[in-house]
C-alpha cells in the first residue's frame, strides 16, 4: 500500500503479575486500511488495544502516530491525538439524545451556553455524511442496539480521528445491523481513516478487512494481506494447529454422537404452555437425559425468554415446568436451582460474572451452602472444587485469586460454566454460550457440551449460529413469536431443515 502509516507499534512488551501479556508486538495501520486483529482469548488483543489507547503504558517498545513518537497518559490523551475506540459494549448515555451523546463533553456553545440547536444541526450533518439514518433529537434509549453502535462509531470519528479501533463491535447485532455497520467501516476507510477491527467472526473479517495481524500467546505469528489467505489457514494460524487437522475437524467441535434417545425414556424436563404477556404465547418443550435440544428461530422469536422462564427468571402468566416428574414453581430462580435447572446467560458480563470477585469466589458462589457446615464455609472444599473445574475447563488465570474481570471473555465464560456445573445440575440451559469468544475456546465449550450430554445431562442450546445449532443439537424446536411451531429430529436437523421450518412458520403466521 502507498498510503502513509498513521499508527505504528514496535516491539511492545507488557507484563502483569505473573503474566507476560505482550512479547515484542509490532503493528502497522495505514490510512484507508482496515486491519483485522485476531487471536484466541488470552492472545493479547485486549492488552494491545489498551496500550494503543493509553489505558496501559508499554513496559518496552514505542508508538508512532503519523511518524512521530507518542506516549499517552490515558485514554483522553490518545483520543485527543486522534485514536478513538468503539467497544463491544456501547459506552453512551441512554437518557440523552443522539446529538447529546455525540458531543458529550465538547458541546458547542453560544454566549457561554450550550447551543442545542447548533449541536443538533452539526449532529445531523455528521450522521448524514456517514450514511446513518437517525434523528439526532431522538433519545438514545428509544433506539435499537445496532443504531446505538452506529452512534458510537460516529462519535469516535467526529473527534478528528485518524485511527478508529473497533473491539467486537458486531457481537450483539443482528445480521441486518451487521451489514450496516460493516458498510460504515468501509466508508470510514474510503475517507482515509485507518481502522483496527477485532472480531471472532471470520466471515466478517473477509467482508471488510484488507489485512490481518494474528496474535498467539502475546506474540505476532502472522501479519499480511487477507486476500490469498484462506479461512482454514487463518483459523489454523490462530489456534497453532495444522491446516489438515482443522479441515478434518471442521468449524465446530461437536461430535454429533450423543447417546441415542429412546422415545420411551422418561424426560428430565417437560415444559408445557409457557405464556408471558408479549413475549411467550405457548411454548412446549421436552428434554431427555443425554440429549441436546436446540431452540431455533429469528431474533425476537422467544428463544432467550424461554430459557429464562425455565430458569425461573421470567414470571409466567401460565404453563408448567416438570423436572424428573415433579412440578417446579415457576418464576423462582431458587426453585429452579433446587430442581437442578441452571442457566448460563447470554450476557456473561452483566448477568454472569461478578467482575470484582476472584475466580474462586465466582465459581463457588452458588455452591457455598453445600460447602459449609454450621454456617462455616470449608476453604479446603472450596479449593478442591475450584481446582477441579479450573483443570477440567482449562481456565487460564494467574491464580484462583485473580479477579475474574481481568480474564479474557472466553475464560470468563468458562468460569460461569464452572459455577453451575459445580451444582451437579440435571438440566443445563445455554443461551448463546460461544458468543464473543474465539474459535479455540469456542471449540472447547462445544466439546464440553458433548461430554456433558454423554454423561446424561439434559441440555437446551440457544444459538444464533445456525451451524453451531445444527451440529450440536439432537432435536431442534423452532419458535415464532413466542410459540413453538415446529420440531426437527434425526436427519431433519440440518441447515436447510431449520431454515425451511423458520420460513414456514413466518408464512403461516403472516
TrEMBL record:
Primary location: membrane
InterPro entries the record matches: AAA+_ATPase, ABC_carbohydrate_import_ATPase, ABC_transporter-like_ATP-bd, ABC_transporter-like_CS, P-loop_NTPase
GO MF: ATP binding; ATP hydrolysis activity
GO cellular component, as recorded: plasma membrane
Location(s) in or outside the cell: Cell membrane
Statement: the UniProt record of this protein carries the keyword Acyltransferase: no
Nucleotidyltransferase keyword on record: no
PROSITE patterns in the cross-refs: ABC_TRANSPORTER_1, ABC_TRANSPORTER_2
Membrane protein topology class: Peripheral membrane protein
Residues covered by the ABC transporter domain: 7-242, 263-506
Pfam family of the protein (one): ABC_tran
Source species, domain of life: Bacteria
Protein's recorded name: Sugar ABC transporter ATP-binding protein
Lineage of the organism: Bacteria, Bacillati, Actinomycetota, Actinomycetes, Pseudonocardiales
Amino acid at each position: 500500500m502507498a498510503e502513509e502509516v498513521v499508527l505504528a507499534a514496535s516491539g511492545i512488551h507488557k507484563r502483569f503479575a505473573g503474566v507476560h501479556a505482550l512479547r515484542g508486538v509490532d503493528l502497522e495501520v495505514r490510512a484507508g486500511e482496515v486491519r483485522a486483529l485476531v487471536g484466541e482469548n488470552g492472545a493479547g488483543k485486549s492488552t494491545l488495544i489498551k496500550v494503543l489507547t493509553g489505558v496501559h503504558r508499554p513496559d518496552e517498545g514505542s508508538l508512532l502516530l503519523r511518524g512521530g513518537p507518542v506516549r499517552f497518559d490515558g485514554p483522553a490523551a490518545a483520543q485527543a491525538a486522534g485514536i478513538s475506540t468503539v467497544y463491544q459494549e456501547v459506552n453512551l448515555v441512554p437518557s440523552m439524545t443522539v446529538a447529546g451523546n455525540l458531543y458529550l463533553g465538547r458541546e458547542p456553545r453560544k454566549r457561554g451556553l450550550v447551543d442545542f440547536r447548533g449541536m443538533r444541526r452539526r449532529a445531523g450533518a455528521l450522521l448524514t455524511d456517514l450514511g446513518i439514518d437517525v434523528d439526532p433529537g431522538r433519545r438514545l434509549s428509544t433506539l435499537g442496539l445496532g443504531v446505538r453502535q452506529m452512534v458510537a462509531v460516529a462519535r469516535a470519528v467526529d473527534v478528528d480521528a485518524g485511527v478508529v479501533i473497533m473491539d467486537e463491535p458486531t457481537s450483539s447485532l443482528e445480521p441486518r445491523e451487521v451489514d450496516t455497520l460493516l458498510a460504515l467501516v468501509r466508508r470510514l476507510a474510503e475517507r482515509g481513516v485507518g481502522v483496527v477491527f477485532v472480531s471472532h467472526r471470520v466471515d466478517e473479517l473477509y467482508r471488510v478487512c484488507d489485512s490481518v495481524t494474528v496474535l498467539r500467546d502475546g506474540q505476532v505469528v502472522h501479519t499480511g494481506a487477507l486476500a490469498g489467505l484462506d479461512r482454514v489457514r487463518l483459523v489454523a494460524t490462530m489456534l497453532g494447529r495444522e491446516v489438515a487437522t482443522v479441515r478434518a475437524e471442521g468449524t465446530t467441535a461437536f461430535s454429533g454422537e450423543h447417546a441415542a434417545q429412546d422415545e420411551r425414556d422418561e424426560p428430565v424436563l417437560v415444559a408445557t404452555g409457557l405464556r408471558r404477556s408479549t413475549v411467550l404465547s405457548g411454548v412446549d418443550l421436552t428434554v431427555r437425559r443425554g440429549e441436546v435440544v436446540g431452540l431455533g428461530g429469528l431474533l425476537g422469536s422467544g428463544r432467550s425468554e424461554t430459557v429464562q422462564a425455565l430458569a425461573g427468571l421470567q414470571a409466567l402468566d401460565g404453563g408448567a415446568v416438570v423436572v424428573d416428574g415433579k412440578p417446579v414453581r415457576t418464576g423462582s430462580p431458587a426453585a429452579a436451582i433446587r430442581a437442578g435447572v441452571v442457566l448460563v446467560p447470554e450476557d456473561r458480563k452483566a448477568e454472569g460474572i461478578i467482575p470484582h470477585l476472584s475466580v474462586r469466589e465466582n465459581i463457588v458462589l452458588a455452591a457455598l451452602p453445600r460447602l459449609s457446615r454450621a454456617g462455616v464455609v470449608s476453604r479446603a472444599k472450596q479449593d478442591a472444587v475450584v481446582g477441579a473445574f479450573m483443570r477440567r475447563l482449562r481456565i487460564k488465570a494467574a491464580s484462583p485469586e485473580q479477579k475474574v474481570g481481568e480474564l479474557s471473555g472466553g475464560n470468563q465464560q468458562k468460569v460461569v460454566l464452572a459455577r453451575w456445573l459445580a451444582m451437579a445440575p440435571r438440566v443445563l440451559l445455554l443461551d448463546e454460550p460461544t458468543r464473543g469468544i474465539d474459535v479455540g475456546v469456542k471449540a472447547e465449550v462445544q466439546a464440553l457440551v458433548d461430554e456433558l450430554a454423554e454423561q446424561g445431562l439434559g441440555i437446551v442450546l440457544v444459538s444464533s449460529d445456525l451451524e453451531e445449532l445444527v451440529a450440536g443439537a439432537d432435536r431442534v424446536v423452532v419458535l415464532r413469536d413466542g410459540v413453538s411451531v415446529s420440531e426437527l429430529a434425526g436427519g431433519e436437523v440440518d441447515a436447510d431443515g431449520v431454515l425451511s421450518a423458520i420460513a414456514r412458520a413466518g408464512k403461516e403466521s403472516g
